[in-house]
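Bug report (template v2)

What were you trying to do?
Predict the complex of my protein with adenosine-5'-triphosphate.

What happened?
Run completed; filing so the output is reviewed.

Input:
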Amino acid sequence: MSGQIPILKVKGLTKKYGEKIVLNGIDLEVEKGKVIAILGPSGCGKSTFLRCLNGLEEVQGGDILLDNESLINKSTKWREVRQRIGMVFQSYDLFPNLTVMENILLSPLKVQKRNRSEVEAQALELLERVGLADRANDYPRQLSGGQKQRIAIVRALCINPEIMLFDEVTASLDPEMVREVLDVIAQLAEQGMTMLIVTHEMNFAKLVADEVIFMDKGNIHEQAPAEQFFTNPQTERAQQFLNILQF
Ligand SMILES: Nc1ncnc2c1ncn2[C@@H]1O[C@H](COP(=O)(O)OP(=O)(O)OP(=O)(O)O)[C@@H](O)[C@H]1O
């Protein structure tokens, strides 16, 4: 740690589905501008963890602090928190009956009550950045999976979040479209966006992550600088995982 105050702190976060413990007391601190890759075998709780950070799951214990303010209390307005912590999912979740531009403008206009021309200008600039400025008036059905996912990222960015959560955003894409989406995320990393990225793309994680957390059965099994994790994982379990993926 460089001594900076973490923008996000997670303390003893516990999540159960019925009797089943899915997150078993997760502790994590994320400094501003850091990129954290979250790796681990299927079912270990990666998605659940991100969903908890976005208020999409009820938790049974522990705390989440954003800029030192607890989010785990009854007065938290997750709608407002989601303007600060953006999330992109595997399944894009674009509204099929709205154009690309309308999808992007929805939250900034309706939730943030921002000025239309200002948001439109920002949306166009973001679309330009991801190479899709000419698709603003298209409907999602007219786009490829990779294009839809880039639009979903633009939609999240247009809210001006301080932190971005990515949950296996390339998992349902054809291999040739994975690159174009990962490039957009890599660009964001370069620009200093704070990000938590759940991914099975090991080479990508190696490229963009400052730090890796390796989860197993609801616990953080190993946490290390990316360089160290990929060259010399300290736990046998993490080593096995990387071997299975033939990294
Ligand atoms: N709504 C739910 N009800 C009950 N159990 C659930 C629910 N959602 C997830 N689980 C269980 O919680 C555990 C963690 O799931 P989660 O989706 O967080 O894992 P993951 O690490 O993201 O897996 P993957 O890499 O396959 O996406 C799994 O055992 C899963 O079956």
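What did the reviewer find?
Residues 17, 22, 40, 42-48 surround adenosine-5'-triphosphate (CB under 6 Å). The first strand starts at residue 6 and ends at 17.
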